[in-house]
Write a structure and sequence with these properties.
Structural class: alpha+beta
Number of helices: 3
CATH class: Alpha Beta
Strand order of the largest sheet: 1-3-8-9-10
Number of domains: 1
Length: 165
Amino acid sequence: MVNENIKEIPVGIADLKVVRTPNRLITLGLGSCVGVCLYDPTTHTAGLLHLMLPDSTKFSQVTKKAKFADLGIQELISLMKKNGAITSKLIAKLVGGAQMFSGMDDKLTMNIGKRNVEKTREILKSLSISVAAQDVGGNKGRTMIVDATNGKVYIRTLGKQQKVI
């Protein structure tokens, strides 16, 4: 039986959203992009950021903070606090960061997926937010669903059984 009170809120590329229980967040197309889930288990508040690039300082004009790890994570934390989350209680889960152009020279692809994951971990560590679980790397895109009720993250990867972290 499907609970019609549960809303599944889509999070686009270079976007972020926050929900409270019983709702869910979903983002599609996590290739080299990274999905950053932040969850407060005490308030059942979940946030999801779909970032594309590690570092905004390489660009002269930034119109969307959620596009970048260095700005998007801070923006997500701010929005979560506005929705009742307690910063010291936040835990993170990471999905994505794939190398979508396998077989190509790393110099050509700049290994953006790996750099996205590394920068994300670096920022979270500097904010004392632990990474509780992750499904990163590889060479396949993923769909990520975050459940605000329990903090579980469901991952769908083409050709694989759904995974829960």
